Amino acid sequence: MLAEIGQISLIVALLIAVLQSVMPMLGAQKNDPRLMAIGDRAATAQFLCVATAFACLTAVFVGSDFSVKLAAQHSHSQKPLLYKFSGVWGNHEGSMLLWVLILSVYGALVPMFGKNLPTTLKARALSVQGMISVGFLAFILFTSNPFLRLNPVPLDGQGLNPILQDPGLAFHPPLLYLGYVGFSMAFSFSVAALIEGRVDAVWARWLRPWVLLAWSFLTAGITLGSVWAYYELGWGGWWMWDPVENVSFLPWLVGTALLHSILVLGKRHSMANWTVLLGITAFSLSLIGTFVVRSGVLTSVHSFAVDPARGVFILILLALATGGALTLYAVRSHTLRTGPSFGLVSKEGGLVLNNILLIVATTTVFLGTFYPLLVEAFSDSKISVGAPYFDQTFAPIMLLLIGFMGIGPLLSWRTDSIIAHKKHFVFACVLMVIITSLTFFFGKSILGALSIALAAYLAFGTLVAFGRKLKFGQVSLAQSMKLLRHQSGSAFGFFFAHMGMAIAMVGITAMSVWGAENAGVLKIGESLKVASYEYKLETIDAGRRDNFEYLQAGVAVSKDGELLSTLTTERRFYPIRNMVTSEAGIRVRQSANLYVGIGEGNQNDGWIIRAYYHPYVCWIWIGALFMAFAGFISLADSRLRFTVREPAPATAIPSAAE
Amino acid sequence: MKIIHAIFILFSLLVSGSALAQSSTEAELEARAREVGQSLRCVVCQNQSIEESDAVLAEDMRRLVRKRLEAGDSNADVINFMQDRYGDFVLLKPPVQTNTYLLWFGPFILLFGMLFWFVRKTRKRSETSPVIPPLDDEEKQRLERLLGDEQ
Amino acid sequence: MKMKTILPLVLFAVLVGFLAFGLTRNPATIDSVLIDTPFPEFELTDLYDPDQVVTKADLTGEIVLVNVFGSWCVACVQEHPKLVELSNTANIKIVGVDWRDTRENGMAWLKKYGDPYHRVVFDADSLLAIDLGITGAPESYLVDKQGDIRYKHVGIITDQVWDDILAPIVVQLRTE
Q1: Domain range holding A191?
Q2: Would an 8 Å CB–CB cutoff place B127 in contact with chain A?
Q3: Which of A275, A570, A605, B65 is at a distance of 20 to 30 A from B1, taking alpha carbons?
């Protein structure tokens, strides 16, 4: 019964979405408020239907109804409750339903929060949002129906893919999709603005919180994915430039650029065209990501089961959505007025530079991800693009970006000069020289020392920029504290995001410069040396537990003869799935993680033991979480802006459509 | 040709091998093996280096890498050895050659192109419109409307 | 409409073209770079006799089908009847490479499913396999009289693969 209710809800949702994509658009063209009002109601109704469908599927999984094919394939009655829930999206069909659910949530939030939006803009944006829903609901119903029945009904399900039997699955995909799909708002409002021929400060200020929301979720989602890969895949990689990771990173990079350009648009009315283009691009890259993960064009350790038919469908959706939006851009973008001019050295200039560097970084990741496909298309040869490529192209661009991040926020709007910041540069240089020498003295790596110094320079620049907002040093401390309390959320957002970047950079540098590893075939009692740590294989244990066979190693880690910890690592074999997974043993500390994994082996030859020393690796994730947190803080502020405190500067008024 | 090549390799092995034998300790060799291993793709598992992979073939490839290094091969020799058998596909760092120019230089060309465009644009702008033109009446009205909207 | 505003659309169209192309390809297969190069030199032992050394000279001199298999390999079980059939019907020398196996398992497996091979090379440590650019089993190579690799097939040799691809190449190699 539940499956049928879910199925019908989805069909109704599709019909409502069709209504939502046609009526408000018509209404906006004819300026008919009644037609436009349909958009609001349709968005809410569509959400309710999709939510019902999703609830039904969840109930099917939790209730272990194996007459539904999807549950039979991906669930199991003996599974812990958490995995019954998260198992709903641990497969292609269910995760698509989650995708559409989140899309409809964002759609439903428009009427809730958009009461003071221009009615035609809102109607058109809702219509575009409806069109995306139509595409993906049709995709689910025609190629990936989660509610198909199975006959005869199996006694039990096949269980969830063992790699996914982890709390990470409960949080990583929902957060990631909240980010990915959240950019649909930027897309819909960009398209709507192009149709209206009008992109102005109101538009920018209204859109910014949505971009912030999506960006913060995406940041959190990617971070969580990185942590998960780190402990699950068994060799301590926190980022491996895998295609599927890259395609989640692409919208993040463009989203970051968008966050900054929208700031210029909201405050200074410049960069209207560019912002609209970024809005379209961010969501298009999300769609490309969805395509890559589900079509198998690129191989990856994370892909879902490959089905070219689904790939064709998503590719057509992508071509229609992005192709349509970019055609509109080609035809209409000249109607958007350009804002007031600004100097090369100015806050606007700094933000343009930020955008240039982020777009170049995006291009690098994009090329690295898709280049193998390009080479194949033009020749018979095949190439791989792995981490070494990104280390040599992406990393220098990011270093350049960080170099500018240390000064950009100090610049003033419109026009500024480098000379005016002489004092800051002198301080920064002294600081960098000190940090470089100190780090070099302890770390013995000039590259590492310079990189840490750059992070310190970024932190310093961020502190100074924030300090100036508090008039630190100019007024009494008490007054500064008072100013601190009155700072806007976005000022705090800036502070935490840029600080997070500096923190993450320390972690990344430490990991790549001072991280150490060793591997060997050990018998009980033998040991490995990694950095100044000794990893000694103490116990080996094998047996069966739950639904897997395990091989467990106890490894004692000591430094200078003093025992620090005994780590337990497992290699698990799941006979039902014929799959092997590994569970690393990790001693987590802020200053360094000690990490050990076990590979194959036997009594006679010994077992493969891989041991790692990961200095400051946690800083990478702490820094990234700072950024996500910063986005949410900033959001609290932008929401208040709907009731506007700060009037738009009276320099220029956008729009020339009328 | 192949035979000459093989003899040449063998010869260089003998020469470099004896030279290296004195200098390279076991730890250095291991470090080099890891460096080489990290630049070779595990061809069966997709997108992992042979150092990171648990696949059996990766294990054999790791062993072969160490064996060849012990025999005195340079890092580049070992990488070439694998490349001769598995093609460019086995290299995680694609070689700089005609079909990868776009990959290697594309980002930097784009960077300089965009920087050039930006510098020129801000120059031109500041020459042509040093002052922001004041609002005309229609714009003033729109401003008031907009501010009204926001409240 | 300015050039600048059309550019994103053009770039996107090119991208969609590539992605569409990508759908028609299987990213997991690798074309061998070894085609038209000499079969690698090796020195291994016979599966049945650890003392008997097998080298390249033992295999070449006529047209050979070299088949890499292993008792652990599930797909090889499916492929095997075809090889047995070929050893009886087709006039071609088939040489096996028992890859990453133990002698006992390899011999037991061949006893169970039949031994179509003229010789079986025992390669427990992937020495020959890596020289052949192996990515999985089964994989098969056609080697000509001069000892050059002329074709590589990844995966199972089915009736169709033999009739449509391999047999015509063998015929062509004979005429050379």
Answers
A1: 173-387
A2: no
A3: B65
